[in-house]
Write a structure and sequence with these properties.
Tumor Necrosis Factor Receptor, subunit A, domain 2, two-stranded antiparallel sheet, two-stranded antiparallel ribbon, 6 helices, binds 2-acetamido-2-deoxy-beta-D-glucopyranose, receptor
């Protein structure tokens, strides 16, 4: 009697008997066979195949079974076989891959994409970051790229990142501070403790004088206010050049990358602020005039300077 390869649905109680039957099978008696022509005896023989992990060292002959030998290192046979030598483990993991299963006597080596990569059409591609203004809704998996979404109102993502979700804007009021710059999808809300707008009281002779209590905090607020105005790329560039002054050269950010340009501008304004504490506003108003940004100039005056 032959044990069926694929028994139809078996009642559970029968399972132990069946497993026992399968376990005792697999002995040499039940090994699959292959035909061999025995030239000496001039007859057709039926030889046993060799089990996975081995190969045929010598075919069977009359009264002598097939002689199998284990595969040498770096070689394998996956199935019952009559190969004369084992197959070489010829799968090599690529640059962006790692070993999912090492080479063994019964398997070729198998690779998968490294963490941080996903498979597409046989290639391992890096999980893309979500650009500023976009947050991660689903992390990349071995089979899928990162899923991004434009940050919904009230949230932001300032960084290009393949892990960061959109974060809620900070609530200046709840922090006991004043809102200086409203949040956008690209940046957080910016708060300040600069005491009141307009804030400074001009001293005699100076049309605007910030030297006094809170000056530093107010200059910080001015930097944020200016750098994160909702200006077009072209306007931002004009402003940046006017601030740098003639002859100064700064590396240009990639075309139309407003986020980087704003960050550069913020850096530039911060350097100005630190170079001459207390003297920021005067230079800025001049630069805004030079850059042909009268609306910004008015906004700065209205926000940070007392009415004339
Ligand atoms: C953005 O990345 C910088 C470092 O590159 C990090 O210091 C900062 O915390 C990140 N911003 C957010 C909102 O996580
Ligand atoms: C900010 O906090 C204040 C006070 O805690 C609250 O009334 C207000 O609704 C909050 N605003 C937002 C946008 O969450
Ligand atoms: C910024 O300006 C653009 C047009 O230049 C406008 O579509 C967008 O709504 C503005 N964003 C904010 C936060 O005011």
């Amino acid at each position: 009697m032959k044990v069926r390869d694929r028994p139809p649905l078996t009642p559970l109680w029968a399972l132990p008997c069946l497993l026992l039957a399968l376990a005792t099978r697999g002995g040499a008696e039940d090994a699959p066979t292959y035909p061999v022509w025995d030239a000496d005896a001039q007859e057709q023989l039926v030889c046993r195949r060799c089990p996975p992990g081995t190969f045929v060292h010598r075919p069977c002959s009359r009264g002598r079974p097939t002689a199998c030998r284990p595969c040498p290192p770096q070689h394998y046979t996956q199935f019952w076989n009559y190969l004369e030598r084992c197959r070489y483990c010829n799968v090599i993991c690529g640059e962006n891959e790692e070993e999912a299963r090492p080479c063994s006597a019964v398997h070729n080596r198998a690779c998968r994409c490294r963490p941080g990569f996903f498979e597409l059409s046989g290639f391992c591609l890096e999980h893309a970051p979500c650009l500023p203004g976009y947050g991660v809704v689903a992390l990349g998996t071995p089979t899928q790229n990162t899923q991004c979404q434009l940050c919904p109102p009230g949230t932001f993502s300032a960084n290009s990142s393949s892990t960061e979700q959109c974060q809620p804007h900070r609530n200046c009021t709840a922090l006991g501070l004043a809102l200086n710059v409203p949040g956008s999808p690209f940046h957080d809300a910016m708060c300040t403790s600069c005491p009141g707008f307009p804030l400074s009281i001009p001293e005699s002779g100076a049309p605007w004088d910030w030297r006094g209590a809170g000056t530093e905090e107010c200059e910080r607020a001015l930097v944020d206010f200016l750098a994160f105005q909702n200006l077009s790329f072209r306007r931002l560039l004009q402003l940046q050049q006017a601030l740098a002054g003639p002859g100064a050269w700064r590396p240009l950010p990639p075309r139309e990358d407003r986020v980087s340009l704003q960050q550069q501008l913020w850096q530039q304004l911060t350097e100005l602020r630190e170079a001459r504490p207390g003297a920021l506003v005067e230079g800025l108003l001049q630069a805004l005039q030079a850059a042909g940004l009268p609306r910004m100039e008015r906004a700065v005056r209205k926000r940070f300077l007392p009415a004339p």
